[in-house]
Amino acid sequence: MVVLSKIYTRTGDKGDTALGNGTRVAKHALRVDAYGTSDELNATVGLARLHAEGEADAALARIQNDLFDLGADLCNPEPEDGETPEYPPLRMVAEQTTRLEAEIDAMNARLTPLRSFILPGGSALAAHLHLCRTVARRAERLAVELAGAEPINSHAVTYLNRLSDWFFVAGRIANDDGAADVLWVPGANR
């Protein structure tokens, strides 16, 4: 259990921060950017939840919890060869992505196939879910960039990739099962 008795520590006043393993790095480090963006994504999911009810809200609550798991994973570098951490870091697992895939398949079964790209919008919930989708894509790009620079848990990247798909399909569900999707009309304003 986490206990936060003091919110400010002054330890980051000079522009560095501690990773989950205690290593100090610059606040602009790629790893910090990656888990910071997953935190930003979590905040956008919180906004979407203001417009969600029932199972949609419950699914978003599960995703918010997963995003904290993701942040915990990304803020803890992989141990050096032969190093055994005193407390093994929390890592994303394949089952979290598998759950998203099952939810995507169930939602997608309700939808007619797309015949056009759609524009973000429609209902308030759909618009917020599209914002979540774009932040998830940015978080994924940062995680992929981080993976190119140092080892990370591959399940973190896979989860983010699938999560953006989840937000896209959920956005269509939030638009009256796609009936209220806002369709792109190529060249409409020429």
Automatic annotation (TrEMBL):
It catalyses: 2 cob(II)alamin + reduced [electron-transfer flavoprotein] + 2 ATP = 2 adenosylcob(III)alamin + 2 triphosphate + oxidized [electron-transfer flavoprotein] + 3 H(+); 2 cob(II)yrinate a,c diamide + reduced [electron-transfer flavoprotein] + 2 ATP = 2 adenosylcob(III)yrinate a,c-diamide + 2 triphosphate + oxidized [electron-transfer flavoprotein] + 3 H(+). Its EC number is 2.5.1.17. Pathway: Cofactor biosynthesis; adenosylcobalamin biosynthesis; adenosylcobalamin from cob(II)yrinate a,c-diamide: step 2/7. The keyword Transferase applies. Residues 7-173 form the Cobalamin adenosyltransferase-like domain. GO terms for molecular function: ATP binding; corrinoid adenosyltransferase activity. GO terms for cellular component: cytoplasm. It is found in: Cytoplasm. Keywords: ATP-binding, Cobalamin biosynthesis, Cytoplasm, Nucleotide-binding, Transferase. Its main location: cytoplasm. GO terms for biological process: cobalamin biosynthetic process. It comes from the Bacteria. NCBIfam families: PduO_Nterm (TIGR00636). Belongs to the Cob(I)alamin adenosyltransferase family. This is Corrinoid adenosyltransferase. It comes from Marinovum algicola.
